[in-house]
Amino acid sequence: MICPQCGTENADHASFCGKCGRELEVAPAQPEQQAAPAQPVQRTRPDKLVRCSDDKQIGGVSSGLASYFGLDVGLVRLLMILGLIFGTATFWVYIVLWAVLPEEQCGT
Ligand SMILES: [Zn+2]
Fold first, then answer.
1. Ligand 1 centre from 15 Cα, in Å?
2. Does the residue 68 lie in any domain?
3. 20 C-alpha to center of ligand 1: Å?
4. Is 16 helix (H, G, I), strand (E, B) or coil?
5. How many structural domains comprise the chain?
6. How far apart are the first and last CA of the chain?
7. Which structural domain range is residue 84 located in?
8. Average per-residue pLDDT in the chain?
9. Which of 10, 37, 58, 102 is deepest in the core (most CB within 10 A)?
10. Mind listing the pLDDT tens digit for each residue in 13-66?
């Protein structure tokens, strides 16, 4: 932080020049202009693949997969639906996952 008046080098955090006392143009602490935009609720990411009992449309498999892979649950559901439309494998994958995965709370 160089004093614009006398050219003295001051500490970066100094508010006033140590030599001439001129107020230094430190970046003012930004007042919170507005409340921070609401952060989407951070889902606790499970370290294992589970079905989310607290967020399920059918069996919670999609939300469990979404949580596990960090994907949007809507995207997973869309892929599931597309898979169901274009082939039957997805259906069986879903059934198998539904059968084998433990059901747990995935929310906060
Ligand atoms: Zn100065």
1. 11
2. yes
3. 4
4. strand
5. 2
6. 44
7. 51-104
8. 75
9. 10
10. 888 999 999 998 755 566 666 666 666 665 565 567 776 666 666 667 777 777
- Can you give the pLDDT at residue 10? 92
Measured from the Cβ of residue 24, the count of other Cβ atoms closer than 10 Å reads 20
Closest CA to 52 of 42, 41, 67: 67
Supply the pLDDT for residue 53: 66
Domain-located, residue 35: no
Q: How far apart are CA 2 and CA 107, in angstroms?
A: 50
Report how far ligand 1's centroid is from the alpha carbon of 30 (Å).
24
Structure tokens at 77: 């559901």
**32 class by beta-carbon count within 10 Å (0-12 exposed, 13-18 middle, 19+ buried):** exposed
Whether 20 and 55 map to the same domain: the answer is: no
- The phi-psi region of residue 7 (left if phi > 0; otherwise alpha if psi is between -120 and 50; otherwise beta) is left
What's this model's pTM, rounded to 2 decimal places?
0.37
